Amino acid sequence: MKRYLGMMCMLLMSMVCLSALESYKVVLPYLNEAEYQALERGESVKGDTLGGNDITTLAPVDGAFLERIESTKRISDEKNFAMAYVSLLPYPDGWKDASQAKRQLDLFNTMRQISTQEGITYISSRRGNKPYPLFKESYYLSDPEDTTSKIPDPVVDVLPQSLVAYAYQFDTSFDGNIYKHTFTTSDKEIFLDITNMTPIKFRGITGLKKETLSLCLATYQTDEGILLFSLAEVKNRAPEVKILFWSVSLPGAFEKRINAVSGWFQRRLEVAK
Q1: CA atoms within 13 A on the CB side of 90
Q2: Distance between CA 133 and CA 171 in Å, rounded?
Protein backbone atom coordinates (compact mmCIF):
# COMPACT_ATOMS: atom_id res chain seq x y z
CA MET A 1 0.00 0.00 0.00
CA LYS A 2 2.81 2.39 0.91
CA ARG A 3 4.52 1.59 -2.36
CA TYR A 4 1.30 2.33 -4.26
CA LEU A 5 0.82 5.64 -2.46
CA GLY A 6 4.42 6.57 -3.15
CA MET A 7 4.02 5.86 -6.85
CA MET A 8 0.82 7.93 -6.95
CA CYS A 9 2.57 10.87 -5.26
CA MET A 10 5.44 10.70 -7.75
CA LEU A 11 2.95 10.59 -10.63
CA LEU A 12 1.05 13.61 -9.33
CA MET A 13 4.28 15.55 -8.82
CA SER A 14 5.41 14.75 -12.35
CA MET A 15 2.06 15.92 -13.73
CA VAL A 16 2.41 19.20 -11.85
CA CYS A 17 5.91 19.67 -13.22
CA LEU A 18 4.75 18.96 -16.75
CA SER A 19 1.96 21.51 -16.52
CA ALA A 20 4.00 24.17 -14.72
CA LEU A 21 5.06 27.19 -16.74
CA GLU A 22 8.72 27.65 -17.52
CA SER A 23 10.87 30.75 -17.22
CA TYR A 24 11.03 32.83 -20.38
CA LYS A 25 14.79 32.17 -20.43
CA VAL A 26 14.07 28.46 -20.78
CA VAL A 27 11.62 29.15 -23.61
CA LEU A 28 14.18 31.44 -25.29
CA PRO A 29 17.53 29.81 -24.47
CA TYR A 30 19.56 31.30 -27.33
CA LEU A 31 19.32 34.99 -26.49
CA ASN A 32 22.26 36.75 -24.86
CA GLU A 33 22.22 38.56 -21.53
CA ALA A 34 21.79 41.99 -23.12
CA GLU A 35 18.71 40.72 -24.97
CA TYR A 36 17.27 39.21 -21.77
CA GLN A 37 17.73 42.55 -20.03
CA ALA A 38 16.02 44.34 -22.93
CA LEU A 39 12.98 42.06 -22.58
CA GLU A 40 12.87 42.72 -18.83
CA ARG A 41 12.86 46.47 -19.52
CA GLY A 42 9.80 46.01 -21.71
CA GLU A 43 11.68 46.41 -24.99
CA SER A 44 11.45 44.22 -28.07
CA VAL A 45 14.27 42.10 -29.43
CA LYS A 46 14.22 41.88 -33.22
CA GLY A 47 16.00 40.40 -36.20
CA ASP A 48 15.63 39.87 -39.94
CA THR A 49 16.82 37.52 -42.67
CA LEU A 50 18.28 40.30 -44.81
CA GLY A 51 21.88 39.38 -45.57
CA GLY A 52 21.28 35.77 -44.59
CA ASN A 53 20.77 36.38 -40.87
CA ASP A 54 19.27 33.61 -38.72
CA ILE A 55 16.15 34.62 -36.78
CA THR A 56 15.31 31.23 -35.26
CA THR A 57 16.87 32.38 -31.97
CA LEU A 58 13.84 34.68 -31.56
CA ALA A 59 11.39 31.77 -31.49
CA PRO A 60 10.38 29.51 -28.58
CA VAL A 61 12.13 26.14 -28.36
CA ASP A 62 9.02 24.35 -29.62
CA GLY A 63 5.62 25.03 -31.13
CA ALA A 64 4.00 26.48 -34.23
CA PHE A 65 5.88 29.78 -34.23
CA LEU A 66 9.23 27.97 -34.28
CA GLU A 67 8.08 25.83 -37.23
CA ARG A 68 6.94 28.97 -39.04
CA ILE A 69 10.27 30.77 -38.53
CA GLU A 70 12.23 27.70 -39.59
CA SER A 71 10.27 27.68 -42.86
CA THR A 72 11.41 31.26 -43.58
CA LYS A 73 15.02 30.16 -43.19
CA ARG A 74 14.61 27.48 -45.86
CA ILE A 75 13.42 29.93 -48.52
CA SER A 76 15.33 33.06 -47.53
CA ASP A 77 17.09 34.78 -50.45
CA GLU A 78 17.13 38.14 -52.22
CA LYS A 79 13.46 37.70 -53.25
CA ASN A 80 12.17 36.53 -49.86
CA PHE A 81 12.71 38.18 -46.52
CA ALA A 82 11.32 38.03 -43.01
CA MET A 83 11.45 40.04 -39.79
CA ALA A 84 10.81 38.69 -36.30
CA TYR A 85 10.22 40.37 -32.95
CA VAL A 86 9.75 39.16 -29.40
CA SER A 87 8.72 41.01 -26.25
CA LEU A 88 7.75 40.04 -22.70
CA LEU A 89 4.44 41.37 -21.39
CA PRO A 90 3.24 41.19 -17.79
CA TYR A 91 0.05 39.31 -17.03
CA PRO A 92 -2.94 41.63 -16.50
CA ASP A 93 -3.69 42.10 -12.81
CA GLY A 94 -6.99 40.27 -13.17
CA TRP A 95 -5.29 37.24 -14.73
CA LYS A 96 -2.60 36.55 -12.14
CA ASP A 97 -4.74 34.14 -10.12
CA ALA A 98 -6.43 32.61 -13.17
CA SER A 99 -5.58 29.13 -14.35
CA GLN A 100 -3.28 28.62 -17.31
CA ALA A 101 -6.20 27.26 -19.34
CA LYS A 102 -8.39 30.29 -18.53
CA ARG A 103 -5.60 32.65 -19.56
CA GLN A 104 -5.22 30.78 -22.87
CA LEU A 105 -8.91 31.24 -23.57
CA ASP A 106 -8.74 34.95 -22.71
CA LEU A 107 -5.64 35.43 -24.88
CA PHE A 108 -7.37 33.74 -27.80
CA ASN A 109 -10.46 35.92 -27.52
CA THR A 110 -8.34 39.05 -27.07
CA MET A 111 -6.36 38.26 -30.22
CA ARG A 112 -9.64 38.13 -32.17
CA GLN A 113 -10.85 41.60 -31.14
CA ILE A 114 -9.81 42.98 -34.51
CA SER A 115 -12.62 45.53 -34.70
CA THR A 116 -10.67 47.44 -32.03
CA GLN A 117 -7.80 47.82 -34.52
CA GLU A 118 -9.79 50.49 -36.35
CA GLY A 119 -8.02 53.80 -35.82
CA ILE A 120 -4.75 52.46 -34.40
CA THR A 121 -1.80 54.52 -35.60
CA TYR A 122 1.61 53.87 -37.07
CA ILE A 123 4.53 56.16 -37.92
CA SER A 124 4.02 57.26 -41.52
CA SER A 125 7.18 58.32 -43.37
CA ARG A 126 5.06 59.78 -46.19
CA ARG A 127 3.43 62.08 -43.66
CA GLY A 128 6.55 63.44 -42.01
CA ASN A 129 7.23 60.46 -39.70
CA LYS A 130 4.20 61.31 -37.63
CA PRO A 131 1.49 59.00 -36.22
CA TYR A 132 -1.26 58.33 -38.73
CA PRO A 133 -4.24 55.93 -38.68
CA LEU A 134 -3.30 52.48 -39.99
CA PHE A 135 -6.71 50.87 -40.48
CA LYS A 136 -9.91 52.70 -41.39
CA GLU A 137 -11.90 49.48 -41.23
CA SER A 138 -11.21 46.14 -39.55
CA TYR A 139 -13.66 43.27 -39.07
CA TYR A 140 -14.28 39.55 -39.54
CA LEU A 141 -16.29 38.19 -42.46
CA SER A 142 -18.97 35.51 -42.57
CA ASP A 143 -18.29 35.06 -46.29
CA PRO A 144 -14.65 35.33 -47.46
CA GLU A 145 -15.84 36.41 -50.92
CA ASP A 146 -18.01 39.27 -49.66
CA THR A 147 -16.40 42.27 -47.94
CA THR A 148 -19.84 43.47 -46.78
CA SER A 149 -20.53 40.29 -44.74
CA LYS A 150 -19.30 41.98 -41.55
CA ILE A 151 -19.73 40.12 -38.26
CA PRO A 152 -18.89 41.08 -34.65
CA ASP A 153 -15.62 39.89 -33.14
CA PRO A 154 -16.20 36.19 -32.38
CA VAL A 155 -15.93 34.87 -28.82
CA VAL A 156 -15.42 31.22 -27.90
CA ASP A 157 -16.02 29.42 -24.60
CA VAL A 158 -13.74 26.49 -25.43
CA LEU A 159 -10.26 26.93 -26.86
CA PRO A 160 -10.04 25.27 -30.31
CA GLN A 161 -6.89 23.43 -31.34
CA SER A 162 -7.15 25.03 -34.76
CA LEU A 163 -9.44 27.51 -36.46
CA VAL A 164 -9.64 29.34 -39.81
CA ALA A 165 -11.43 32.66 -40.27
CA TYR A 166 -11.43 35.55 -42.75
CA ALA A 167 -11.15 39.27 -42.12
CA TYR A 168 -11.29 42.53 -44.04
CA GLN A 169 -9.03 45.48 -43.30
CA PHE A 170 -8.74 48.78 -45.12
CA ASP A 171 -5.14 49.95 -44.84
CA THR A 172 -4.58 53.69 -45.33
CA SER A 173 -1.60 52.93 -47.60
CA PHE A 174 -2.46 49.55 -49.12
CA ASP A 175 -6.25 49.91 -49.52
CA GLY A 176 -8.79 47.20 -48.63
CA ASN A 177 -7.79 43.54 -48.45
CA ILE A 178 -9.16 40.19 -47.34
CA TYR A 179 -6.97 38.13 -45.04
CA LYS A 180 -7.06 34.51 -43.96
CA HIS A 181 -6.54 33.98 -40.22
CA THR A 182 -5.23 30.53 -39.29
CA PHE A 183 -5.02 29.77 -35.57
CA THR A 184 -3.08 26.92 -33.96
CA THR A 185 -3.12 26.49 -30.18
CA SER A 186 -1.57 24.39 -27.42
CA ASP A 187 -1.66 24.58 -23.64
CA LYS A 188 0.94 27.41 -23.68
CA GLU A 189 1.04 28.84 -27.21
CA ILE A 190 -1.48 30.60 -29.45
CA PHE A 191 -0.25 31.10 -33.00
CA LEU A 192 -1.98 33.24 -35.63
CA ASP A 193 -0.85 33.27 -39.26
CA ILE A 194 -2.41 36.06 -41.35
CA THR A 195 -2.15 35.69 -45.14
CA ASN A 196 -3.34 38.14 -47.80
CA MET A 197 -6.04 36.58 -49.99
CA THR A 198 -6.20 39.59 -52.31
CA PRO A 199 -3.35 41.49 -54.01
CA ILE A 200 -1.92 44.30 -51.89
CA LYS A 201 -1.86 47.55 -53.81
CA PHE A 202 -0.17 50.90 -53.39
CA ARG A 203 -1.99 53.78 -55.09
CA GLY A 204 -3.96 51.25 -57.10
CA ILE A 205 -0.91 49.36 -58.39
CA THR A 206 -0.22 45.81 -57.20
CA GLY A 207 2.82 45.61 -54.97
CA LEU A 208 2.32 42.11 -53.56
CA LYS A 209 0.43 39.30 -55.21
CA LYS A 210 -2.12 37.09 -53.44
CA GLU A 211 -0.70 34.89 -50.66
CA THR A 212 2.79 36.42 -50.72
CA LEU A 213 2.49 38.29 -47.41
CA SER A 214 2.33 36.55 -44.06
CA LEU A 215 1.97 38.43 -40.78
CA CYS A 216 2.13 36.24 -37.69
CA LEU A 217 1.32 36.90 -34.06
CA ALA A 218 1.89 34.39 -31.27
CA THR A 219 1.68 34.32 -27.49
CA TYR A 220 3.48 31.91 -25.17
CA GLN A 221 2.78 31.73 -21.45
CA THR A 222 5.81 31.73 -19.15
CA ASP A 223 6.33 32.00 -15.43
CA GLU A 224 7.19 35.71 -15.63
CA GLY A 225 4.65 36.82 -18.21
CA ILE A 226 3.46 36.48 -21.79
CA LEU A 227 6.00 36.25 -24.58
CA LEU A 228 4.60 38.05 -27.64
CA PHE A 229 6.10 37.00 -30.96
CA SER A 230 5.62 38.80 -34.27
CA LEU A 231 6.73 37.85 -37.75
CA ALA A 232 6.40 39.46 -41.18
CA GLU A 233 7.38 37.47 -44.26
CA VAL A 234 7.28 38.64 -47.87
CA LYS A 235 7.70 36.18 -50.73
CA ASN A 236 8.81 36.77 -54.31
CA ARG A 237 9.55 40.45 -53.78
CA ALA A 238 12.79 42.38 -53.32
CA PRO A 239 12.87 44.48 -50.12
CA GLU A 240 12.72 47.70 -52.15
CA VAL A 241 9.75 48.12 -54.51
CA LYS A 242 9.52 50.92 -57.06
CA ILE A 243 6.02 51.93 -58.14
CA LEU A 244 5.86 54.80 -60.62
CA PHE A 245 7.50 57.74 -58.82
CA TRP A 246 7.52 56.11 -55.38
CA SER A 247 10.01 53.78 -53.77
CA VAL A 248 8.53 51.60 -51.01
CA SER A 249 10.77 49.91 -48.45
CA LEU A 250 8.79 46.79 -47.57
CA PRO A 251 10.86 45.97 -44.44
CA GLY A 252 10.24 49.48 -43.12
CA ALA A 253 6.56 49.43 -44.03
CA PHE A 254 5.86 46.12 -42.33
CA GLU A 255 8.06 46.84 -39.32
CA LYS A 256 5.84 49.84 -38.59
CA ARG A 257 2.74 47.68 -38.98
CA ILE A 258 4.13 44.99 -36.70
CA ASN A 259 4.89 47.61 -34.07
CA ALA A 260 1.39 49.07 -34.41
CA VAL A 261 -0.37 45.70 -34.08
CA SER A 262 1.90 44.56 -31.24
CA GLY A 263 1.18 47.82 -29.43
CA TRP A 264 -2.54 47.30 -30.00
CA PHE A 265 -2.39 43.82 -28.48
CA GLN A 266 -0.46 45.06 -25.46
CA ARG A 267 -3.07 47.77 -24.86
CA ARG A 268 -5.86 45.19 -25.09
CA LEU A 269 -4.13 43.20 -22.37
CA GLU A 270 -3.79 46.29 -20.19
CA VAL A 271 -7.56 46.77 -20.15
CA ALA A 272 -8.34 43.04 -19.82
CA LYS A 273 -10.24 41.92 -16.75
Answers
A1: 9
A2: 9
pLDDT in tens, 241-256: 666 556 666 777 788 8
What is the reported pTM? Answer: 0.88
Please report the DSSP string for the chain in residue order. Answer: -HHHHHHHHHHHHHHHHHHSPPPHHHHSTT--HHHHHHHHTT--EEEE-GGG---GGGS-SSSHHHHHHHHHHHH-BTTBEEEEEEEEEPPPGGGTTS-HHHHHHHHHHHHT-GGGGTT-EEEEGGGTSEEEESEEEEEEESSTT-TT-EEPPP--SS--SEEEEEEEEEETTTEEEEEEEEEEE-SSEEEEEEEESS-EEETTEEEE-TT-EEEEEEEEE-SSSEEEEEEEEE-S--SEEEETTEEEEHHHHHHHHHHHHHHHHHHHHHT--
* Confidence at residue 249, expressed as pLDDT on a 0 to 100 scale: 66
Q: Are 42 and 226 in contact (CB under 8 A)?
A: no
* Residue 44 burial (C-beta neighbours within 10 Å; 0-12, 13-18, 19+): middle
Domain boundaries, the chain: 39-270
- Cα–Cα distance between 23 and 21 in angstroms, integer? 7
Of 270, 264, 273, the residue nearest 113 (C-alpha): 264
What's the pLDDT score for residue 255? Answer: 86
Residue 265 CA from chain centroid, whole number: 9
Class for domain 39-270, per CATH?
A: alpha beta
Contacts of 224 (CB under 8 A, 6+ apart): 23, 24, 88
Mean pLDDT score, 205-217: 88
Other Cβ atoms closer than 10 A to 131 = 12
